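Working notes for the structural subgroup meeting. M.R. asked for a predicted model of this chain before we commit to crystallization trials. I am recording the input and output together here so anyone reviewing the notebook later can reproduce the run.

Input as submitted:
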Amino acid sequence: MKKSIFTLCVSVLALAACTKQNINEQTAGAGVSKSTKAVDAVAGTATVDASTVQQTVQGFGGASILAWQADLTSDQRTKAFSTTSGIGMSVLRVMVPTISSSFAAEKPTIDVAKSFGARVIATAWNAPSSMMTGNHLNTSSYAAYASYLSSYNSAVGGVYAISPFNEPNYTGSTWMQASVSEVTNFVAQQGANCGAPIMAPEPFNMDQSFINTFLSNSTAKANTSFVCGHIYGVNPYSLGSIGKSVWMTEHYTNSSISGNDWGNAMTAAKEIHDCMNAGWAAYVWWYIRRSYGPIDESSNITKLGYVMAQWARFVRPGYSKISCTSNPTSGVYATAYKSGTKLVIVIVNQNSATTSQAFSLSGISATGFDRYSTNSSSNLVHTTFTTSGSSFNISLAPSSVTTVISQ
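Returned structure, recorded in token form:
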């Protein structure tokens, strides 16, 4: 949600933001119990098949939007992007400013993110005012707008992708709106001239009709490298065989709950799992630094941040998601990934009791695993264990997220 936090819903912009907040408050903290009574019950085996390759992972990250929030400090940048001492984010989302004199301000955080291996994506909330009538881009300004986006890309040293419109279907906003025809026409006519690969159409609600209509134009589709959108108000779902990598480029669960609230962090854990299980390639939170975000205003990594790290540190850009039983046991959710012979499994245990989970491996082998676990009282606790053959059992702490990486 964007935009809201500074004005606290006293302006039209904040009112739009609060509307998004209300959509997501309905699920915050659901399904997390404080009981820790141990059980030993295996309801089903999670089968991992490394020969069945699904999507290529692009990364996990968050946004730094200088027009509304001060830039990240040096310490916060390291905590956001380091894979050894931080969250390990591999995606940074930034805003394309509406005046070129602001381009340089974006570069310090962009450069640091890149130095840690992160991919930078830039979204335009508005074109320069001279190119717009009201909150719509002038058709006569298409070429000038593409040139402007290209100049931004050059000024910041290059970004991984540019999105020309942010939530163009979110009516009532104070940023640039566009019909699906307008977005389609711009990308078809000028998408190849924007200086970086195009992400589009980035609709609110990950509106499938909007996306499908956009992709039905063969020229716009050809000019689009990545399909993107935001899941406010909807659950992650498969877009089907659209022939494009799908990125979830903005969401947060609840801006009125601390990033250290464990129930809310577990809600986010399940959401990340669902996005990956839907076949999507990236998950991008809203603000990196915010009271409800992965780093708080005092520069501390929050529980939400440590939950994100369970994926971000260990499932890096270019890894392949592979077949894995998504919900092998009631309350247990798993996704698996590989890079060469390395296997990574991320497991969410929503149960209020210790749960034993069996795994069976096919197409890949392991003699042991590094294990990292986060729960309400500990963060990224590291242990190791050995395995024999093509199967193993793992004991999952109550209400926890566990990542295992083959040795």
